[in-house]
Write a structure and sequence with these properties.
The chain is mainly alpha-helical and 964 residues long. The protein contains 46 helices and 13 strands. The strands form 4 sheets. It has a 5-stranded parallel sheet, with helices on both faces. A 3-stranded antiparallel sheet has the order 1-2-3, with no helix packed on it. Strands 4-6-5 form a 3-stranded antiparallel sheet. Helix 4 runs antiparallel to helix 5, helix 5 packs antiparallel against helix 7 and helix 7 packs across helix 12. It is globular. It starts with 5 loop residues before the first strand and ends in an 8-residue tail after the last helix.
Length: 964
Amino acid sequence: MAPEPVRFAVLGPVRVWRAGTELHLGRPQERALLALLLVRAGQPVSMSEIVDVLWGRRPPDTAVNVVHRHVGALRRLLEPGLPTRAPGHWLLRDTGGYRLVADSGSLDLLRFRALRVEGRRAASDGAPALAVDLFTEALSLWQGPAAHGIPVEARAHAAFGSLDDERLATVKEAADVALRAGVPGVVLPRLREAAADSPLDEPLMARLMLALSATGQRPEALSTYLTVSDRLADELGIDPGPELRDAHQAVLRDAASTAAGPGAGASEARTAEGAAASDLVGPRAASLPVPAQLPLDLPTFTGRRAELDEVLAPLSSEGRSAETVVISAIGGMAGVGKSTLAVHWAHRVTDRYPDGQLYVNLRGFDPSGAVMRPDEAIRGFLDTLGVPPERVPHGLDAQAALYRSMLAGRRFLVLLDNARDSDHVRPLLPGTPGCLTIVTSRNQLSGLVAAHGAHSLTLRPLDTDEARELLIRRLGAERVAAEQEAVAEIIALCAGLPLALACVAARAAAHPHFSLSAIAAELREAHGSLDAFIEADASADVGAVFSWSSRALSPAAARLFRLLGLHPGPDFTAPAAAALAGLAVREARLLLTDLSRVHLINEHAPGRYAFHDLLRAYAAELAHTQHSEAECRAAVDRLFEHYLYSAHAAGLLIAPYVDTMPLPPLPEGARPEPLADDESALTWLAAEYAVLLAVIDAATSSGSDRLVCLLVSSLERFFDRQGHWHDWVVAQRTALDAALRLSDPVVEAHGLLGLARVEGRLGLRDEAGAHLDRALERFTELGDDVGRAYVHLSLGWEAEQHGDLPGALRHDQLALDLFRATGRQAAQATALNAVGWDHATLGDHQQALSHCLEALTIQRDLGDHIGQAATWDSIAYAHHNLGDHPQALTSYRNALTIFRDLGVPSEEAGTLVRIGDTHRTTGDHEAARAAWRSALTLFTELAHPDAERVRARLDELGEPHGDV
């Protein structure tokens, strides 16, 4: 018997109707579980995600059994006559979890999305009036925040917040279309509702102004601009962005009725996810150019006509690439030209992807083992897309979700080069139509074909005609025609591999007086070995080509080539090459030019060089066969020292008042980077960041444990300042393991303290507390009063987080006494501020001001800007509690300005929370909401645990915050 019809709603309160009668959904957790299944309708929801939504980080031991009971209750509710253990019709088991069956006729969310897609299609087909009707119908399905009424903790899950983002973005799309159609009044009520929820959303407020002006409400439009401008200045310390200013000018010209809507252009039809994610990058993204990361297309590219026709075919159907996710996987052996073909193909179709091109070399088969992790690649893309690194959420899944959101509804080309396997690239795939993803790998990537419908292409070596054409393009038709037998032999010896042919052609082009017969003879006599990279049935030893190429170098260039094979990073500079080979930088730069000229390395960016991994493997093999282990080790040690001493110098420039582990005297002949100031230090650290992470891994593998500890210590302040907490915690754990292997209590103590600091940043409080206790034991045993003081400062902060305010004061006072005894002025000021803050939290606000003003005097004398910001925040808090609210707001704004200038979003968010508290105390609830929403945005983007506290504040004022 067919089941009774069931209808679900999640766009507002979670509701269910069976046979037209609304059902009572029972307990809150059952509602939350049903809401999650509805949000993921048609997709399996894993047990781990269900447990995370229902209980967060501390599920009970019986969590899985409780979920099973909730599922049983929901099944009986939806299908009362369902026999025990029967699978049912609506709620099914699926791949370790559960899946709810629904379609656009039974679930309002799916109906909303279907109408939104139809609206976009109507808009693109030139039917804006129809599009407005469809968007309006879609928005009418919303009866409040998504999944309203489920427990607050469950509602905080990203799955629900993203739905409110979809709603907000659809309001913006509807406004754009309504303005073009000349019927802005239709969407004006929705715009007003959204603006009340998001008063600092500049793209939204720009659309509201245009709609008001177009409906004859020009005074209100101008008033809206003034209100938003004041709020941006008061709460964020910024001026209106270009989109809001443009809308203002349009209103002043009374031209809004003909405006196409803000943001029109290549990215006009942005989806909900794309709009919401783009909005969180703020004004930084507006100043960034359209990403164009593709490597240079090879001017001498030739052949591969059939392959190009094959990969272009899926894009030839009109509209297909706009309505589907297009993924192509190019496989083949090393050196066969996968990357070259992918880059050439990508350049041919860039005009179809006006929002930009993203490129990353995943180094899946890098001989050094330095494979790029998916989260590293995603963070690089997010940085390119304008997301500040400190606002990237914690964990691969959250980062991948943000990345997909940034691309959603936009037309991007994404080239993922040198992937290891399908799992390597899955998190990097766009999730919505309109993008083209090209993946290259030595493996066939059958997982992408099976699971994602990727088009697979396996490259073979060039045939004889294509190989001859390649040589003609590089050497000229006349020279190739003059020695056809020699050309045939060269092609055979190179086995049709473009990389090998390019090396031979480079040698021949550099010596036009050499006959091709002589070059073929040299090549025939050469010997090399790259067995790990060449298929067993290859018809030639391609290592011979590289052997022959390197033999044509000067002895100095050949030596540098071999030693560069030992470099662990993705690329290198002349100073690094000089350190590796023990040369002057000028000499190294000249030799790198020689190597680049014969295609043994590639200058992929000004002053930065990289290997093809096949050539890197060959260079490393030569290094180990032609140099003793002692020579290789000495070269690597010089390289590691170069990076260590350069990173340490850079760290001192960006944080001169922070203590790090001291380094031994500079080794004789070592040449760190000559860094002049904090700006050049930051530039160098950012450019070398991926290399420094690779050096940490390589030094760990090679047993250079002390260097690992010192390098991670030198990078601590850069990690923290840039918000690279995810990489920092990995590096800090690596360093602590190295310290334990050294059995050095000094290094261990610093490693424990550093790890506790980053764990505190990530909200891992239990782990941080345990590591701080161990660090205090070690520093006490060592008699290191400065180390003890720093641990007490961190223990004071942890005590405050746990609500132990007297304990916080006790630890911070101990730190202050120790810093005073050791004469550390900057650290003393930090401790003075901490003690002042503790007094304020305990209600002794005059004592708080006394300590904080003493701290501020020291910090001003030293020029310690970050210290001044923290102290201004404490001073403001004391003034607030003394009832001097104007002085409190002035002091808070001093702190906020410095935190923003220095780019410290976690502290910025904390100050915004307290600004909101002051506004609430004075009765200005609108200003309080604005400050707290800004703080919540920052905390949410940081995956910071304090986000829950801000949500609670907003709830107290009855503020919906699901769209943050």
